[in-house]
Write a structure and sequence with these properties.
By secondary structure, this protein is of the alpha+beta class. The chain contains 13 helices and 11 strands. The relative contact order is 0.13. Bound molecules: iron/sulfur cluster.
Length: 337
């Protein structure tokens, strides 16, 4: 680990002031950043500890939504009575991720900003355009079983590792940000980026900006939803493919549906225009199959990850069936008595 200056901020203003320099990183739970620093993947000059900022609450919003503070631990968010009752898709997705210990330490803001788990990104002896721009991509033509099949570029085929973010994408959450230019809101679909020719940029935060919270709009996806996660182990493993479905049925037909995929792209993958084709349609394997083809249009394997395309197709159909039947994938085994 390289030496760094450590600053503990007492409020958002202090954090932004300290965050204005070069090579600054904000430290919250540290479950990803500290690992990256130990491996010399991240070498910040200054670390600004934001754990004392007053961003550790879940609050009601006018109009019926919820605001998740950036520093609320993932576990506290998942088990919050309001989140469990009003946003069970989000609770389910959070509980599908990591381990109880990590969920206790990791924060909501950190979950958004965690970095890819691409093997090459973590191995400083290998080329990686995300870690070292211009050095190449070890995964293209290399070991790429966990990599993207959608939205990749010639420079990077990494995936975003979060489960929570897949649910937030389906829920049309809004990310609240403070920075040198003031406060702003970013629609969740615009928060993370595809790699393009700037694969080192995971999201659209500007230098010095800090995530302060996540707003959940008032929506009723409490009956017909699911977070279906497929992975190599039953726990403590990242998704090979995951599917978040938020659906609303009226009179036996789909009045609204949103579907986001994890494990397949550099960001949670949604195609709202494809979702339109399910609106007003009765749930059926044929309709779900046609939708999965539309959502996966243009998917390209890299060899070892070719299996993700047919796996994703089946997972989408299964997840839609679970949501339509109000039989979501259960995460009750994650409850700690
Ligand atoms: Fe780096 Fe992206 Fe290539 Fe992985 S996929 S080696 S993160 S450039």
């Amino acid at each position: 680990m390289s030496p760094f200056d450590y600053i503990r901020a007492g409020n958002v203003g202090e954090a932004l002031q300290a965050g204005a320099g070069e090579q600054v990183r904000y430290l919250a739970g540290g479950t990803n950043l500290v690992d990256l620093m130990k491996e010399n993947v991240e070498r910040p000059v200054t670390v600004v500890d934001i754990n004392r900022l007053p961003l550790d609450r879940i609050e009601e919003l006018d109009g019926g939504g919820l605001r998740l503070g950036a520093l609320v631990p993932n576990a506290d968010t998942a088990w919050d009575e309001r989140v469990e009752r009003r946003y069970p898709l989000l609770s389910s997705a959070i509980l599908a991720g990591a381990s109880p210990q990590l969920r206790n330490a990791a924060t909501n803001g950190g979950n958004l900003n965690q970095r890819t788990r691409c093997y090459y990104f973590y191995d400083v002896a290998t080329p990686c355009n995300k870690r070292e721009p211009g050095s190449g991509c070890g995964a293209i033509g290399g070991v790429n079983r966990i990599h993207a099949v959608l939205g990749g570029s010639e420079q990077c085929i990494a995936t975003h590792p979060s489960d929570m973010c897949v649910a937030l994408a389906a829920l049309d959450a809004v990310v609240r940000v403070s920075g040198p230019g003031g406060d702003r809101e970013i629609a969740f679909s615009d928060y993370h980026r595809l790699p393009g020719d700037e694969p080192w940029r995971d999201n659209n935060l500007q230098p010095g900006e800090l995530v302060t919270g996540i707003d959940l709009p008032a929506e009723d996806f409490t009956q017909n939803y699911t977070y279906l996660k497929l992975r190599d182990r039953l726990s403590y493993a990242f998704a090979l493919v995951s599917v978040a479905v938020a659906m609303r049925l009226e009179g036996g037909t789909i009045a609204e549906v949103r579907v986001a995929l994890g494990g397949v792209a550099h960001k949670p993958w949604r195609r709202p225009e494809a979702e339109q084709q399910l609106h007003g349609v009765a749930p059926s394997p044929q309709a779900f199959g046609a939708f999965s083809d539309a959502l996966l249009a243009g998917a390209v394997g890299q060899g070892e990850n070719d299996f993700k395309i047919p796996l994703a197709r089946k997972a989408i159909v299964r997840a839609l069936k679970q949501a339509a039947g109000a039989t979501p994938q259960s995460q009750t085994d994650k409850r700690v008595a």
